[in-house]
Amino acid sequence: MKALKLSVVFVACIASITACRGVDTKDTRNDGQGEVSVYISSSPIDDRNRVDSVNLLITALRVTPTGGVPIDIDIEPDIAVNLMGLENGETERLLDEYSLDIDNYESVELVLSSFDNNVEFENQMFDLSVKAGFENNLTSNVNFEIEDDSEYEITINIDLYKSLQEDASVDPQVYYLLPALRLVRNERSATITGQVDNALPEDSSCDDNGVGDDEGNAVYAFLGAGVTFQDIQQNSGDPYAVASVIKSTTGYTYSLYNLEPGTYTLFFTCDGKLDELQADNESIMARSDAEEIQVGSGEIETVNFID
């Protein structure tokens, strides 16, 4: 059966997180090897994408040694994951303590079933596939090293806000994934959370975020200080991560999970619904002033947006 793949970039090393459930895919540790456990997570989205569930059937992981031949690691049984169910930093374990040879590795890929991925919206199921031409868009050399008798846990985060695209030009509509993945070691995994002043999404200039001022509100996070705002265009200027701003009886809140430690520049926008993936919509998107924060390894920091 033909499989689809999502390529993942390693920007530093590999990542980890607490155990959920998983599959033991290899026996015991051997000399000259290290062990790696792999988890999957997602970033929540709101009504901008108008979906109830995003379902993947993951059949294997593919790791590639630097300059070497890719290694396929079958997942048995296949693991079905609803990405919409992996909110608030929750994870699903894909691989448990798998032994890899000592080496430098340059990429990891999620291998998906060709026929069992779909999106649910209003009790209807629609096809979901990786958009043609983007399977290898994020691959790069990185110096990911497995050391002797080392243990690693990594989390692959699929940012649905940056990834899920609807094509309503056909009937019935179909959905695509534009690979927007990031990895982080669990002991390094950082979180930024906070509140958004009611006055920002409820401002009269925000006329595209729904009648209840609760659609398309988002926080865009860019890695580095002094970064200027850009909408999602599938290039190097894109936000590193995006979080939906959730409205409740206590106000508006957001959380960014599975971040690499570092300095971030954050913007609030009430115009997330205007951000058409791969298009330049920056000029029509209202946004707040920039907020900068430095977050350390394993830390949780708070950034509030005040009018």
Major sheet attributes: 9 strands, mixed
What share of the residues lie within helices?
Answer: under 10%
**Overall morphology:** globular
Question: Proportion of β residues?
Answer: over 45%
What is the number of strand segments? 21
Q: Can you give the mean pLDDT?
A: 83
Task: Write a concise synopsis of the structure shown.
The protein is mainly beta and 307 residues long.
Strand and helix layout:
Layout: E1 3-9, E2 33-43, E3 53-65, E4 71-82, E5 92-101, E6 103-113, E7 118-121, E8 124-130, E9 144-146, E10 151-159, H1 160-163, E11 164-167, E12 174-177, E13 181-185, E14 190-196, E15 218-223, E16 241-244, E17 246-248, E18 251-259, E19 262-269, E20 291-295, E21 300-302
Parallel strand pairs: 2-10, 8-12, 14-21
Antiparallel strand pairs: 1-6, 2-5, 3-4, 3-6, 3-7, 6-9, 7-8, 10-13, 11-12, 14-18, 15-16, 15-19, 17-18, 19-20
Question: How would you describe the overall organization of this protein?
Answer:
The chain is mainly β and 307 residues long. It has one helix at residues 160-163; strands spanning 3-9, 33-43, 53-65, 71-82, 92-101, 103-113, 118-121, 124-130, 144-146, 151-159, 164-167, 174-177, 181-185, 190-196, 218-223, 241-244, 246-248, 251-259, 262-269, 291-295, 300-302. Helix content is 1%, strand content 47%. β11 and β12 form a beta hairpin. It is globular, with a radius of gyration of 19 Å.
List keywords for this structure.
single chain; 307 residues; mainly beta; 9-stranded mixed beta sheet; 4-stranded mixed beta sheet; 1 helix; 47% strand; globular
